[in-house]
Design a protein that fits this description.
2 domains, seven-stranded mixed beta sheet, Metallo-beta-lactamase, Chain A, alpha/beta, 285 residues, five-stranded mixed beta sheet
Amino acid sequence: MDMPPHGTVETVAPGVRRVIAPNPSPFTKWGTNSFIVGEGEVAVIDPGPDIAAHVDALRHAVAGERVAAIIATHSHRDHSPAARALAAATGAPILGGPPIRFDPNAPKADAGFDAEYRPDRVLADGERVSASGWVLETVATPGHTSNHLCFALAGTGILFSGDHVMGWATTVIIPPDGDMGDYMASLERLLERDDSLYLPAHGGAVDTPRRLVRGQLGHRKHREGQILRLLKEGEADVPALVRRMYVGLDERLVGAAGLSVRAHLNDLNRRGRIVATGERWAVAA
């Protein structure tokens, strides 16, 4: 699919508009999808990065309407920072998961997070947000981050899937906050639902969501099996595992692959399948 234009307003489903932020990258595809739900009284889901042109585009998109809620699926810097500028312009409350607290002795762990994220209201699993003409139900999906939430638009089959499920790429799990075991459990949870259309925060709509979720579960289980087979051949560190598992990978994505491998290692270690000696890993005896 060609890159849609940044800053323009597109209707992507009945009652749902999209404005794409100008932050394309190997991790965001064409940029962050900011969704506007409803007409007259609206919610803005994932307002995106605090880029003045994007905030202006969102303000123009909702001109003459009341913004009832500004919602972040999670607090990564490409999702939540624009919430503050949009809230200042509209008076709307910021809603989402809780802020994430990091170990101050691990300063690099929070590099991708919005350090100033402070929602006016923390949403719990199953909690509803509503205004005239729409109801959004919170679906807790930790894994990509511990505070990741999806949102189901009641009566439509639409799920705003944030970064939990995307059609164009697999989700990166970054320890220590990202947790592979939680991510897999959240995927299993989505399989139990009957949503018919996913609108992710990056890339296009997913119109066969159950098939995609089953495929992503299978992909993660395949990666787990790869790790176990390689460690049965001998102990290894993360860089060595990445070289053997991701042959021909774009160099820009090597770091992200290493983080996902580490997330798998942490999960396997917690389950007693492998053990660590410093930075090297081996199959448990």
